[in-house]
Write a structure and sequence with these properties.
globular, two-stranded antiparallel ribbon, 2 strands, mainly alpha
Amino acid sequence: MKNSKKSVNSLVSILGVFLATMLFGALIMLMIGKNPLQAYAAMFSYAVGDVSAITNLMNRSMALILAALCAAVASNAGIYNLGGKGQIELGAIAAAVVGYKLIGLPIYIHLPLCILAAIFMGIIGAAIPGYLRVKWKVDEVISTIMLNSVFFMFTSYLANYPFRDMTRWSGTTPPVEESAKLPFLIQSVELRSGIIFALVAAAIVYWIFNYTNQGYRWKMIGLNPRFAQYGGVNVGKDQMKAMILSGLLSGLAGAVLVCGSNYRYWESIAGPYGWDGVLIAMLAKNNPIAIIAVSFVFSIFKNGALGMEQVANVPSDLTGVLLAALILFITGREFVSILFRKRKHIILVDEEVKQ
C-alpha cells in the first residue's frame, strides 16, 4: 500500500510539473508572437492525435524506458552508470551480427539467441566499470563516460569493416533474418512488441526494488553505504549485481532497437537514448512506474515538435527549451521540498525549546 501510494504521488507530481512546463512554453510562444493553443494542439495531434501517432509514441518509448531503467538500477544502489549509450551500441551490434549470420533457424531459437547475445554484451559493457569501481575504487562516472567512446569506436569499426553491408552505405550491417525479428504486437498499426519487453522489465525492476531483500540492500547502499556495510551488507558485491542488471537492461534495449525496429545495426543507433535515459531516471527518482510516465512525456515532446513547426510555425528547437524547463521545474520542486522540510524541522525544534 505504501509503495502504491508513493507511486501515485510521484505520478501526480510529474503531471503537475508537466502542466507547469506547458504554461512556461505558452509564455515563451506569446513573447515571440505565436499562438500557444494552436502550437500545443498541433503537438498533441502529432504525438497522440490518432492510432498511428500513439503507435509511434509507444515505439519510441520502448528503448527510452529500458535506458532509464538501466540508469535507475545502478543509481538506486549508489553507483552511477552513465555508459548506457555505449552498452546499447554493444547490445545492438551483437543482436545484428547474430541476427544476420545465423541462417535457417526457427524464430523460437534465432530470436532468443539475438536477445541473449545483446544482453551478454550489455552486461560486459557495464561489468567492466563496475569491477573497476568495486576492486580498485575507480570513479565509475568517469569510466562509464569514457567507455561510451571506446564502445562506439569498437562497434563502428565492426559495422564499417568485418560486418559491413557492402550494398549500402558504410557503418551499416546487413539486415537481420526474418526469424530474428520481433513480431508485431498489432500488425495493422505496426505496434512493435518491444514495448512489452520495456513494460515487463519496468514491472520486474519495481518488484525487485520494493519486494525483495536485494532491492532493500540496494536502497540501504544508496542511502548510506557505510551504514549498510556496518549492517552486514557486502556493498561491493551488491553494487556489482546492480551494474550487471543495469547492463542487461542496456543490452536488451539494443536488441529491441535492432530486432524490433531498425532490423540492422547502424552507427549511433543508440542516438540520444543513453543520455535521455539517465535524465528520465533522475526526473522519475528511479521509480520504475514514474519512469514509464516520464518516458511518454519525453516522447510526446519530441514526436510533437514537427507538428508545432509545420502547423504553428513554432521552431522545433523549442522542444529542447521545454525539456530544459521540465528539468528546471523538477529541480525546483525538490528544492522547495528540502526548504519545507528544513523549515518544519526548525519549527519543531523551537516548539521543543519553548516547552
